[in-house]
Amino acid sequence: MQTTRIDVILKTLDTRAREKTREFKRLGAPDLTDVVIVDSYTTSANLSSDEKERVLRSLVNPHIERGTIDSTIIEKPFTVAIEIGYLAGVTDNVGTTAMETITDVTGREHTDASVSSARVYALYGNVNDLEVERIKKSLYNALIERATLVTWNEYVAKHGFSKTIPHVDLHATASADIVSLSVSDEELLAMGTAGIKGADGKRRGPLALSLKDMQAIREHFKTLGRNPTDIEIEMIAQTWSEHCKHRIFASPMEGLPKGIYKEYIKRATEEIRTKKGKKDFCVSVFSDNSGVIEFDKNWLVTHKVETHNSPSALDPFGGAITGIVGVNRDAIGTGLGSKPVANMYGFCVGEPTDTHPLFRDERMQEQMLPPRRILDGVVRGINSGGNCSGIPTTHGFLICEDRFRGKPLVFAGTVGLLPRKTAGRKSWEKAARPGDLIVSVGNRVGLDGIHGATFSSVKLDEGSPATAVQIGDPITQKKFSDMLVKEARDLGLYNSITDNGAGGISSAIGEMAREAGGCRVDLEKVPVKYPGLAPWQIWISESQERMTLAVPKNKWKELSALAKRRGVEVTVIGEFTKGGQAQVAWNGKTILDLSLEFLHDGWPREELAIKEPMRVLTPLKHSVQSELGADMLALLSRPSIASHLYIAEQYDYEVQGGSVTKPVQGRGRVPAPSSVTKPVLSSKAGILMTSALYPTYSDGDTYKMAAASIDTAVRQAVVGGANLDSIAILDNFCWSRSNTPESLWDLREAGRACYETALAYETPYISGKDSMHNDFRGYDHKANPVSISIPPTLLISALAVLPNALDAVSLDFKQGGDLIYVIGETHDEFGGTEYGALYGHATEGVPSVNATAWAKVYKSYGRARKYTNAGFAVARGGLATALNTMAIGGGLGYEIDLKKLRGTYTSREAALFAESQGRIVCTVAKRDRESFEKIMGTNAVCVGKVVKDDIVIMKDGKDTVVATTVEQLQLAFEKTFKGF
Amino acid sequence: MKTKPKVIVFSGYGLNCEAETKFAFEEAGGKADIVHINDVIADPKMLLKYQILAMPGGFSYGDDTGSGKAYGNRLNNHLGPILAEFLKRDTLVIGICNGFQILTAAGILPGALTYNESARYMVRWVDLKVEGTSPWTKNLKTISVPIAHGEGKYVPPEEGSMHIAFKYTDGALCEYQHLPMNPNGSAQDIAGVMSADGRILGMMPHPERGMFFHQRPDWQVQKETLKNKGKKLPVYGDGFALFKNAISYYNKKVTK
Fold this sequence. Notes:
The complex is a heterodimer.
Chain A: E1 4-10, H1 15-28, E2 32-43, H2 49-59, E3 65-69, E4 80-86, H3 93-106, E5 115-125, H4 129-139, E6 145-150, H5 152-157, H6 185-194, H7 211-224, H8 230-240, H9 242-245, H10 247-250, H11 259-276, E7 282-284, E8 291-294, E9 299-307, H12 309-314, H13 316-332, E10 339-349, H14 371-389, E11 393-400, E12 409-419, E13 421-422, E14 425-426, E15 437-442, H15 452-455, H16 474-488, E16 496-499, H17 504-516, E17 519-522, H18 535-540, E18 546-551, H19 556-565, E19 570-576, E20 581-586, E21 589-595, H20 596-601, H21 628-637, H22 645-648, E22 659-661, E23 664-665, E24 670-671, E25 674-677, E26 686-692, H23 702-720, E27 727-734, H24 741-761, E28 765-771, E29 775-779, E30 785-789, E31 793-802, E32 819-823, H25 834-838, H26 851-864, E33 868-873, H27 878-890, E34 893-897, H28 908-913, E35 920-924, H29 929-936, E36 940-947, E37 952-956, E38 959-964, H30 966-975
Parallel strand pairs in A: 10-11, 17-20, 27-28, 34-37
Antiparallel strand pairs in A: 1-2, 1-3, 2-5, 4-5, 4-6, 7-8, 8-9, 9-12, 10-12, 13-14, 15-18, 15-19, 16-18, 17-19, 20-21, 22-25, 23-24, 25-26, 26-31, 27-31, 29-30, 32-35, 32-36, 33-35, 34-36, 37-38
Helix pairs in contact in A: 2-3, 6-7, 11-24, 13-14, 13-16, 14-16, 21-30, 23-24, 23-26, 24-26, 26-29
Chain B: E1 6-11, H1 18-27, E2 31-36, H2 37-42, E3 52-55, H3 69-88, E4 92-96, H4 98-105, E5 112-114, E6 122-130, E7 142-149, E8 153-155, E9 163-169, H5 172-177, E10 190-194, E11 200-203, H6 219-228, H7 240-255
Parallel strand pairs in B: 1-2, 1-3, 3-4, 4-11
Antiparallel strand pairs in B: 5-8, 6-7, 6-9, 9-10, 10-11
Helix pairs in contact in B: 3-4
């Protein structure tokens, strides 16, 4: 085999290298002087020397770059060079593009040839081995990448860097094994926990099945009179996983015979839809990959929010990029194909300054990534996935709390756009029919992402599989996404579509088989990245960027011709059938034959035990010397409040041309809690996106935590431009210690809040997802065992349709002289708040919600909003933080009198920093004062005014409580993430 | 009946601003078609039906191997002769953001784009000063539109001619948000370049994302000021003029 290596280097100033030099110095290599970056492409394609020259010319832009073929490119001796490439079998996007370039330039196919891309960092100056090791560690993730050190002498002696093309070498038997279940309960439990034993005696990875589950499977096969195959057990494990079946939400609990989902979430939506009657805007809820609501007379909008917590803990970049690109596929897989029009993200990570190491194993070999690395990685992942796909990122948030260092939360959501009708059909309905071809679209299958669904259904520890990590490939997806939602859908080329997410094709086909009544798959037809994969691996692999279609036989020709023209791979891998069986064959031999009924409903239900936890609540302790002005600035610098502009401004929020109020607002470029976008440029209407969560409130009361999340999300929507009767919400539960009765009691309480609060606001749930095992069990730097569980978290996202998008109101103060109003009451509520955390950790007095009363106020506000010119829903950090954000946004000062505030608060601290819910701050121009007050009545009190000078004054009657400047506020707000 | 000027907007392989670019041309009075590059390759002569060619923004090939490179190669390898014929006629071409990168990588416009000074992808608004004479920028002096790119720093050609179309300048929005005028370290503050006759224009900023007034980051503040004066909010933003100019370039010819 011939191998050719092309190296490319920038001739002009390489700002990437300059940034790396700074970064490495910061890591602790003070005498490093310079870094040179080389991009390299090693190919196994058979090329003539003329072709090599032409390929080189295609990979080098002569104005700014130079390149070499199979020789040295660096002339000045370096201290050491670090080469980073991918491990075998890991998606190499750059390599794939380079291979396409080679095919294009040479004008012929190069079967079985590939390109392996790598990047070299040549270091200059005085760097010792320890420093090099530290730099190397910062550059790569050992789960997916390889790092090689090269000395100058080696480089010169070998005439360049080595020509390595990693390839997967599989020796496993490519067949299905029979698994005997006539074993002891201990063995059954071991199998359920750590996996089926392979021929080498090693277990294959978690099935996440309990002993009861395993016994149910044993019973089922006993009645069939045979033992199962490995692929059958793997499929059952995928389908029954917490991740896919949401078993905790579906299981009965004390007082809830049908479980939390049916009794609280679904029931709330059903009752609200009935109450709304003709004003019900829901079209398809809970039954598809996203919820679907009405947009205007021609269009519908869809929304779905996902979490990608476990993968992001191991590989933050890969976890986040596959999170965002994966939830884009949820949109594409909604109805007959919803076009993604807006992304959102949310990160909950440990304190970025925390450097205490954590290990997954007692020998301290497998170190967890520190919070800063995780944050940097997930930020880059959303950047790459969202920006590359041409979908605006219109909303996002960042929460930093110590307990997220064991397992971060990474949220990714996508709003999509569906025409009401497509190819003469209702776009939100779909069904695979018996006889339809099962067609796989997009990427090929590899070992990446095996056991993702079952892995995310257990805690993170030493046994967590490295193969659960995947790399996203947004461009492959962009190609098939465009083909599907911009062409094939409207040509009526398929009857059903779904995303291959958790559980891969086993879950996707298993779900679609329910629509048709069965399926038969010829597994050897599934396109693979490399030979040697076992059937069970192909069946459950979560290799990314794939979807499954149900294609009528008479449309196949047209679809495959279209796909060819769009550079998309489509393959027929089977047929939908009727008769109620899921069947899979491998080279003609049936290796899986399961009844759909058992597969989807055969899991044993048992009532979950709950028990009220004993909570000792701590009241607020604040130091007597505390100074309100200093506390106010300190709050602005707290990482969950401080400006994360550096994240928001690296995500494209302008693409598709629809932005109205942006995720970054005002003169001061403040990250905003909500934004409005026009997904259809020719329509007046717009969509508002927002979200809210209060993880630390759970330390006091999970009912109040959930109610506050809903209230804040709803209030932010109302302030930003939506009317209360047009808001739909989504729930994402992220829980921990979910196997304990106390934690389940807390979960039930949060569920009850979800039901009662949503009902009061009449905001239906349209989609939801839960992630129940956000626990870490490992070791600290002294090998002491530690376990860290996240505070139970509920993210509420809101989606609202504005009939006129230009009704949106931004948060920044607009002009001196405008009047400042506060709506709502202030109480001594500090439990779980940011101010409480400033002085220890207060858990007593979690802010409560009175949704029935507040619903009326929010309705009035919807009518009065047109007289406001800025608004902010008081949330984290209380009233002071709300005012300060508006002041920084507008670059204008303000004067207020705290005495005027309504409520039962008893201290200035409470007036400024309590996080009482239900409050809104807004500004009104003098000319609109009467109109505004006429609608709001006594619900709104005027507390002061905006001033055009750089002055901030807060009074309590005659006393000046705080005096500062907007400049000071902005400094405090922006300092935390400076340099990130 | 007056026939509308015809615009071809390229798509495929990760370009992603084709829909709003088409919308802008049609709002300005043109008839625009989005065509996948592979459909042009299958029938190259179709290009000659059009007067205006737009290479929109996006992330062709994910910027892998360098922004615009792989798509530029594809243009040259498959459409070189027909593009040359298209350009010889009285046609207009615009490359926006990734489209500009593609036009330079394909050698249709001089120079190259490299990594931003900050080495990071960045979204913000910029103010542009119009330079030279081009049908695209007729009657324009300064405009404010957004950028969104990671590789937008312009490197002029070492030899040969270069005609500047836009320079970053200190204008209304830089002042509004206290931003440095040059967002990416471009040589001579260059934001866009053009052919000698101004028919072919390449620019990093996105005029189609500034076609409406409400897309401006300061529109809510301006709304208050206008309200105080009893005035209404304008519909269009600065970027729209480019599309209007391109369409009227042909409409005027028809009436002549």
